[in-house]
Input
Amino acid sequence: DIPWFPRHISELDKCSNCVTKYEPTTDPRHPGNGDDVYIARRKFLNDQASQYKQRNLQFLLDEGVITTDRIPQLRRINEYLQKKTGFILRPCSGLLSARDFLASLAFRVFQTTTYLRHGASPHHSPEPDLIHELLGHVPMFADPLIAQMSQDIGLMSLGATDEQIEKLATVYWFIIEFGLCREDGKLKAIGAGLLSAYGELMHACSDVPEHKEFDPAITAVQKYEDSDYQPLYFVANSIQDALMKLRQFALSMERPFSVVYNPFTQSVEVI
Ligand code: H2B
Ligand code: FE
Output
């Protein structure tokens, strides 16, 4: 019994199941809990995100990608990314299930939140927000090799078992979200979760947490912290090296069929 997975980019309309936790409406730990203005703004944005349907995006050529005087618009970023690597951002309304998130990568689609973290806690965000997506993830998707490896990992996730998805998600977490690498003997952040959270970035590169060498087989079964700073980080040689190992790890997973992506029709064919 193979779990359902998207066969065409338009079926990502069915891949927007949010993991409901850490909501400002219900969770007293959320800094926006009780802030009705913030909750209403976030609801307005998330209602739009959940209405979103896949379609060809209209690119405006006469506008900048990111400017200091306004919140960047997905359309402009997409225009830029499309030219660089063919990746596109599509709005989503929160942390997605690992299965849905990884399935999207198979189509060179990055599901991105459009709300901002609450102003009461600017240095750390236990959930994705626009700053995390744009500063942490988007630069990676503008790199052709990283884009290709991300898509490969996405393709390997399609129809995978829950156990395989859990392992992929764990390695993804420790590398793409919270990974470090060593450069000239110094620790540098490669993970999007660190690049978008100044407080945790300082913590990660200090002597306080434990640092272990990145090895997907070991990393895949490591328990992680998702509501506070990590007590343990994995260190790779470089982001390319880390993604290559993650891709290799994904390719080694058993699956009773294989998939081929057809970029002309934006479809996955199963063989
Ligand atoms: N959902 C959203 N909206 N953004 C992410 O960056 C994200 C996600 N990352 N769901 C995922 C999970 C990832 O860390 C792995 C695959 O679980
Ligand atoms: Fe992320």
Summary: Residues 36-51 form the longest helix (16 residues).
